[in-house]
Amino acid sequence: MWAPHRGGKGTSLICRHGSREEHLPKTPKQGQKKPANPKTARRKRIAAGLAAGKKVAQVAREVGLSRQWASHEAHQLETELLIADLVDREQVRIRALFQNALKVIEGALTADKTTSTKDGDLVDLGPDHYARLQAVKRLLEVALAGRQARVKPPEQVGGAALRTMDDIRAEIDKEPHGRPKRAR
Predict the structure, then answer these.
(1) N or C: which end of the chain has fewer CB within 10 A?
(2) Who has greater pLDDT, 89 or 18?
(3) Closest to 46 (Cα-Cα) out of 30, 32, 64, 34
(4) What sign has the CA pseudo-torsion 27, 30, 32, 37?
């Protein structure tokens, strides 16, 4: 049976089971912060791990949850808002890192290949085509990040094959309903 107990620093509940007593945490006094919700604290740890780039399975191990439940928590609106808040706090830093990444890509677009001789002299071998192509690849990844890929039109739409204008003209020129076309 639970019964209120007034101690020196607040109110708590006592459960008496025979000779054993259990105390629930005391309610905070006015002006004191309530203890953090364990679910919220767990979501904050999940959000921080995901924002740091960790995989859900790794975050689940760190937090002590199953991978499925950690994934469930990660996709909750509250967790997504926490991640957005973490990212928003770092906008200035993210912008600076983005600018630095673009400078590196820009430098790689003009990369030259060099080698050294046995004497230690540097020899310019001309443009480094591999480095330049990799730079173009990274530039496209950055430029297209977050955009949906365009889908090629399917060969059939709604069960009917796509037709060209020539196909439509050929159908018009056919005999309608088995009767010969009238001469004009």
Answers:
(1) C
(2) 89
(3) 64
(4) positive
Alpha-carbon distances of 38 from 42, 95, 127, rounded to whole Å: 6, 33, 57
Instruction: Identify whether the C-beta of residue 55 lies closer than 8 Å to the C-beta of residue 46.
Output: no
What's the rounded Cα separation, in Å, for the pair 165 and 154?
17
Element (H, E) at 139: helix 129-143
Over residues 126-170, the pLDDT tens digits come to 999 999 999 999 988 888 887 776 666 656 555 566 777 887 788
**pLDDT surpasses 70 at 97:** yes
- 17: tokens are 């089971």
Question: Reduced to 3 DSSP states, what percent helix, strand and coil does the chain have, rounded to the nearest 5?
Answer: 50, 15, 35
Is position 178 within any domain?
Answer: no
The verdict on 103 and 69 lying in the same domain is no
What is the residue range of 115's domain? Answer: 91-143
pLDDT at 33: 62
pLDDT in tens, 26-43: 555 566 565 567 778 889
**Same domain assignment for residues 68 and 99:** no
Residue with tokens 């020539």: 166
